């Protein structure tokens, strides 16, 4: 039979690597606890319309990247979630969280997203995003808090040299004012722009500024900046966000061309980047979405959030040579010198496990020497050896692998002794 292969752009996260994921996930969850963000788990698929409305018809995600799923017995148009914010806001509206006494509502998610993209390093078709959303406050301090949460994760994991790029894309009105002037400029160079940008001019001209094509970048170098068209309110908000970031000691650079891929952003937009990560340098993206809750049928509530992927975070850790302090070894291997000791060993392992000790024994009838080799391979901190005479006296030899120190101990007492020596 022919082998069946893993789908393109996906990966198996194997034992030995998954421990890194656990470590990062635990760190993310602990940061959210400290920042008072609470987990929300929404479905992996939602109605297609949610993303059309919530992400925006003119985005890459909706135009090219969605996985639409269907079942012949159902007429529902469903899509595997390509991002987290739309589902969170859908749920916020559906569960009437705007009525919650705790405002703003601060939530986070951690789970897989699906996008049909060209796979490459740090770019997958299924990837895991960690994201946070704060809905219900326009306070610029919360913009800074959200950026700080993402930055803290990277810092506490040991990444250095990250930079925050910051912009304000204004309100819808600000953008309408800017748009007129931007269109004048873009129409002047229309013929020389890439085909994608030519169509963006009519649908979402701001996104031409975000094109990665070098010719487009040069042609739009002197295009009018959105920052010149901010209303007093948007400008004041932007200044306040910058001031709060400075108070937290978070360095940033203003990039007036950074507009982010999603349609629903208002005012603050930001990305966290790492120099030299290769083709993909953006680790995290986020921003304010003051129009989104209303767009999805709720009250007019402001919101802000970020999303980052664990895959790109791992890539960054690898590039910077950061080793996470994950332990892979077990605590104790129980070896037997005679088959008669098997049931005593089996019982002991069970009692060790009950006492919180990660314990293992041989299941392949290995000889003593091979059992000790297995203990080594499992990086056991302790080995317990039960021989014939020990079995008779109800004891075993406890060996600490690092020091070679040995001690005969009663079988009954072993779980407590090992648990306490593990601290
Ligand atoms: P890009 O410009 O790299 O395509 P994006 O604007 O589509 O990014 P967002 O939708 O803002 O990305 O997602 C936030 C973060 O999620 C990105 O900064 C990146 O770290 C990560 N990310 C996005 N797409 C992928 C993917 N296909 N595989 C892995 N990580 C991804
Ligand atoms: Mg993308």
Automatic annotation (TrEMBL):
<feature type="domain" description="Aminoacyl-transfer RNA synthetases class-II family profile">
    <location>
        <begin position="1"/>
        <end position="325"/>
    </location>
</feature>
<comment type="similarity">
    <text>Belongs to the class-II aminoacyl-tRNA synthetase family.</text>
</comment>
<feature type="binding site">
    <location>
        <begin position="83"/>
        <end position="85"/>
    </location>
    <ligand>
        <name>L-histidine</name>
    </ligand>
</feature>
<keyword id="KW-0067">ATP-binding</keyword>
<keyword id="KW-0547">Nucleotide-binding</keyword>
<dbReference type="InterPro" id="IPR004516">
    <property type="entry name" value="HisRS/HisZ"/>
</dbReference>
<dbReference type="GO" id="GO:0016740">
    <property type="term" value="F:transferase activity"/>
</dbReference>
<dbReference type="GO" id="GO:0005524">
    <property type="term" value="F:ATP binding"/>
</dbReference>
<dbReference type="InterPro" id="IPR015807">
    <property type="entry name" value="His-tRNA-ligase"/>
</dbReference>
<dbReference type="Pfam" id="PF03129">
    <property type="entry name" value="HGTP_anticodon"/>
</dbReference>
<dbReference type="InterPro" id="IPR006195">
    <property type="entry name" value="aa-tRNA-synth_II"/>
</dbReference>
<keyword id="KW-0030">Aminoacyl-tRNA synthetase</keyword>
<feature type="binding site">
    <location>
        <position position="129"/>
    </location>
    <ligand>
        <name>L-histidine</name>
    </ligand>
</feature>
<dbReference type="InterPro" id="IPR033656">
    <property type="entry name" value="HisRS_anticodon"/>
</dbReference>
<dbReference type="InterPro" id="IPR045864">
    <property type="entry name" value="aa-tRNA-synth_II/BPL/LPL"/>
</dbReference>
<dbReference type="InterPro" id="IPR036621">
    <property type="entry name" value="Anticodon-bd_dom_sf"/>
</dbReference>
<keyword id="KW-0648">Protein biosynthesis</keyword>
<feature type="binding site">
    <location>
        <position position="133"/>
    </location>
    <ligand>
        <name>L-histidine</name>
    </ligand>
</feature>
<dbReference type="GO" id="GO:0004821">
    <property type="term" value="F:histidine-tRNA ligase activity"/>
</dbReference>
<dbReference type="Pfam" id="PF13393">
    <property type="entry name" value="tRNA-synt_His"/>
</dbReference>
<feature type="binding site">
    <location>
        <position position="260"/>
    </location>
    <ligand>
        <name>L-histidine</name>
    </ligand>
</feature>
<protein>
    <recommendedName>
        <fullName>Histidine--tRNA ligase</fullName>
        <ecNumber>6.1.1.21</ecNumber>
    </recommendedName>
</protein>
<dbReference type="InterPro" id="IPR041715">
    <property type="entry name" value="HisRS-like_core"/>
</dbReference>
<keyword id="KW-0436">Ligase</keyword>
<comment type="subunit">
    <text>Homodimer.</text>
</comment>
<dbReference type="GO" id="GO:0005737">
    <property type="term" value="C:cytoplasm"/>
</dbReference>
<feature type="binding site">
    <location>
        <position position="115"/>
    </location>
    <ligand>
        <name>L-histidine</name>
    </ligand>
</feature>
<dbReference type="GO" id="GO:0006427">
    <property type="term" value="P:histidyl-tRNA aminoacylation"/>
</dbReference>
<keyword id="KW-0963">Cytoplasm</keyword>
<dbReference type="InterPro" id="IPR004154">
    <property type="entry name" value="Anticodon-bd"/>
</dbReference>
<dbReference type="GO" id="GO:0140096">
    <property type="term" value="F:catalytic activity, acting on a protein"/>
</dbReference>
<feature type="binding site">
    <location>
        <begin position="264"/>
        <end position="265"/>
    </location>
    <ligand>
        <name>L-histidine</name>
    </ligand>
</feature>
